[in-house]
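Support request, please re-run this one:
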Amino acid sequence: MSRPQEPHRPFFHFGNPFRMISPKGSHLSPKLVALLNTFEETLAGRLRKLNPKDKDDVLSLSWMKLAMESLCGTHNDIKTLISEIDLPVSDWDEKWIDVYLDISVKLLDVCIAFSSEISRLNQGHLFLQCVLHNLDSTSSNQFIRARSSLDGWRHHIGSKNPRVENCSTILDKLVESLDLPKVKNSAKGKLLMRAMYGVKVLTVSVCSVFAAAFSGSAKKLLDLNVAETYLWAQAFNDFQGNVNGEIRNVFSSGRFMVLKELEAVDGIVKELYPKIQDGVGLAEGKEFRSSISDLESKAQKLSQGLDLLTKEVDGFFQILLTGRDALLSKLRSGGAVSDQMLAGNVGAQVVR
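Re-run finished. Output below.
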């Protein structure tokens, strides 16, 4: 895929990752090294799976669903890792916890913004149902209603969602949190911070792609520069370059819709609109009926895809929410991190 053709947001540099994994006074045992390598290799595999083989796969609803599944899956990997290294909450640095709580709130806000936009797009399906219902008749009044519903759909889809527009500010704050924390005299803590960094990079990158898609603006995209010393660095750079590059190419061509299923519906709407204006005389034509059938199938595919994506975003939200509750509960009790706690604590922890 070609590289971006328009100005974009600068790369962010995060320094040497080994500065925090192997300073004086700390050493990773072979077991911890093996756990870390397994985690990073799994993350690399998830990134390669997300890297689209065809540019037309970029920002299809099925790809976005896969992206959310990858986030949740990687959060589960962190849960497993924390359980295996057996790091008590009492050993967590107070600074880590404060930053984690702040970042988890920001991610909850991002999830709410995405859920509201998916819901808004799905509401547009009501306009399309009205169009299809009214085009079942050859009455001129029904055609007028169908045209009105198409106008309503175009206005609804073309409007902006303030919550999504505000995502850029939140994402910029999340980028600031990516800088590696200093960990002293704790091999497990260093391993945890390094692993969390990988999931934070994936989370911020995916969220920036979603924000760009939902806002219709390539300005929402973030370009993150990851040191080559991570086992997943090359997979991430390939993923980021292909996905961000294709999205920028789409926008530079003058298209404001990058969601494939939404664009497909919009194409049929643009095709039908002038035919409806020409009157009921076309209603019995084969080409006209074919356009209606095409609209029905594409509208259904869009609605189903949005429903599936809603479930994934809602699931990610619940991971973040229950994670905060679980960590706060453990902090109050002063206990260690248990498997039961981690079952709901993964998502928020990884974005420390």
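Residues 17-350 form one domain. The CA atoms of residues 96 and 327 lie 12 Å apart.
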